[in-house]
């Protein structure tokens, strides 16, 4: 039998098989996404069980993978189940300590925007808004400075439905879920008519002139941990020991993360430990591009360093430092922000046209004092109703600026459009260089007392 005849027979058989398979398909009705609901907390496996199972199936986890699971698991994640900010939580933030903090930031944004133009219409975009306290204080200042509902809108980047609910109840007189087709997943309106939108990703926020606020946001983004050995940089992983407990181990070979993340100048000098957040670098680049291409300013405030630290990964529970590998989901995981890395990510590179002018970092004490925070402190104390209230206001301010508390550990960094080089040389950015001698903006808001609210 020749080969031509064999091919003819095979083609005939294959054709028959293809035709016969058309009767094997079954129509399956897909579920309606609108009717799907997440399991209730406590009805799913614990985070420790999930983590152990993943390690047993796939091997050790990177620290970044571990943090991602602990922070953002849909039902058992740390930020998904409860309010975690405040005296009753695991940590407290500057806006919760004193209204002065948010008011100074509001005045700073307004003053710097005047170097660009009127700044209207304005988008205020906050990444990880917490309990929305910072936004409430900024809105009170803007109301005093003449901003009305048509002049601005609020855009909140938040992955936790629990925190989203807290924010909506504090900011809005009405709020609701929206269709899945829209870029935002929730929306509301303040009592004065300001529109509020929630997103699960910065990329979905409209590209318009904006103030970008990232206060205690970068410190919770997942990090990769590396150590320098005799064979070069190696990654620290999280594994299970013989007693089924989590522990750190170092890789024998270079991981993909080693090859892709550790590049000059990050590994320069005599550093033997590195913490790098790939997501943090990506978001810093996004902010730089948005500010440069569409206008606005980005302000980052967080505790961190300028590349001198190595091992800062830790956990907080009830305001105390605890082992980050114990009780996952019940503790706040965090790492100091390496501001030198953010500067590299936001600054100009040969392959990018859009970049930012990076200012800072400067210590929180210096930033607040250069923005005349003491002038606002005096107004608040003069308007206090009692000596006890005055003492509380003063103690709160001291906590913000005391070098042993928040004054030096927390730092500020700002991104400006690259076109503002000449303007900033002529009028240096407030808080980052020369003090603010003109109290015009403070005079406008001096009548706002400690108990005043936006109307």
TrEMBL record:
InterPro entries: NDUFAF7, NDUFAF7_sf, SAM-dependent_MTases_sf. Its EC number is 2.1.1.320. It comes from the Eukaryota. Its main location: mitochondrion. One of its GO terms (cellular component) is mitochondrion. It catalyses: L-arginyl-[protein] + 2 S-adenosyl-L-methionine = N(omega),N(omega)'-dimethyl-L-arginyl-[protein] + 2 S-adenosyl-L-homocysteine + 2 H(+). Gene3D superfamilies: 3.40.50.12710. Keywords: Methyltransferase, Mitochondrion, Transferase. It is an enzyme of class 2 (transferase). One of its GO terms (molecular function) is protein-arginine omega-N symmetric methyltransferase activity. Coiled coil: none annotated. It holds the Pfam family Methyltransf_28. GO terms for biological process: methylation; mitochondrial respiratory chain complex I assembly. The keyword Mitochondrion applies. It is found in: Mitochondrion. Belongs to the NDUFAF7 family. Arginine methyltransferase involved in the assembly or stability of mitochondrial NADH:ubiquinone oxidoreductase complex (complex I). This is Protein arginine methyltransferase NDUFAF7. It comes from Mythimna separata. The lineage of its organism: Eukaryota, Metazoa, Ecdysozoa, Arthropoda, Hexapoda.
């Amino acid at each position: 039998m020749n080969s031509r005849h064999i091919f003819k027979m095979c083609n005939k058989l294959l054709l028959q098989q293809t035709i016969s398979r058309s009767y094997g398909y079954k129509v399956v009705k897909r579920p309606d996404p609108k009717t799907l609901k997440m399991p209730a907390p406590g009805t799913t496996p614990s985070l420790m069980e999930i983590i152990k199972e993943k390690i047993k199936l796939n091997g050790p986890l990177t620290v970044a993978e571990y943090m991602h699971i602990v922070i953002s698991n849909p039902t058992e994640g740390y930020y998904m189940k409860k309010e975690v900010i405040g005296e009753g939580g695991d940590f407290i933030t500057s806006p919760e300590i004193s209204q002065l903090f948010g008011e100074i930031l509001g005045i700073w944004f307004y003053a710097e925007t005047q170097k660009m133009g009127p700044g209207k219409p304005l988008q205020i975009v906050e990444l990880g808004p917490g309990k929305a306290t910072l936004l409430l204080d900024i809105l009170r200042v803007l109301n005093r400075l003449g901003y009305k509902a048509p002049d601005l809108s609020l855009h909140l980047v938040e992955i936790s439905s629990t925190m989203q609910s807290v924010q909506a109840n504090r900011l809005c007189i009405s709020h609701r879920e929206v269709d899945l087709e829209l870029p935002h997943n929730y929306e509301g309106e303040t009592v004065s008519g300001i529109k509020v939108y929630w997103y699960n990703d910065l990329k979905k926020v409209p590209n318009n002139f904006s103030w970008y606020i990232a206060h205690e946001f970068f410190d919770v983004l997942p990090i990769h941990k590396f150590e320098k050995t005799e064979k070069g940089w190696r990654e620290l992983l999280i594994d299970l020991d013989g007693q089924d407990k989590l522990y750190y181990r170092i890789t024998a070979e270079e991981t993909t993360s080693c090859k892709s993340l550790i590049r000059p100048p990050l590994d320069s000098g005599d550093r033997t430990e590195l913490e790098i957040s790939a997501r943090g670098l990506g978001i810093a680049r996004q902010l730089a591009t948005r500010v440069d291409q569409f206008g606005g300013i980005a302000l980052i405030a967080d505790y961190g360093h300028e590349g001198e630290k190595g091992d800062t990964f830790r956990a907080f529970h009830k305001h105390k430092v605890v082992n980050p590998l114990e009780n996952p989901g019940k503790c706040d995981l965090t790492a100091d922000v390496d501001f030198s890395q953010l500067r590299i990510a936001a600054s100009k590179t040969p392959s990018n046209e859009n970049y930012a002018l990076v200012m800072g970092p400067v210590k929180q004490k210096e930033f607040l004092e250069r923005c005349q925070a003491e002038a606002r402190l005096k107004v608040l104390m003069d308007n206090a109703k009692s000596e006890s209230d005055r003492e509380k206001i003063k103690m709160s301010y001291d906590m913000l600026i005391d070098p042993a508390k928040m004054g030096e550990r927390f730092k500020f960094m700002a991104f400006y459009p690259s076109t503002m080089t000449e303007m900033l040389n002529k009028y240096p950015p407030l808080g980052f260089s020369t003090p603010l001698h003109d109290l015009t903006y403070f005079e406008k808001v001096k009548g706002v007392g400690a108990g005043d609210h936006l109307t």
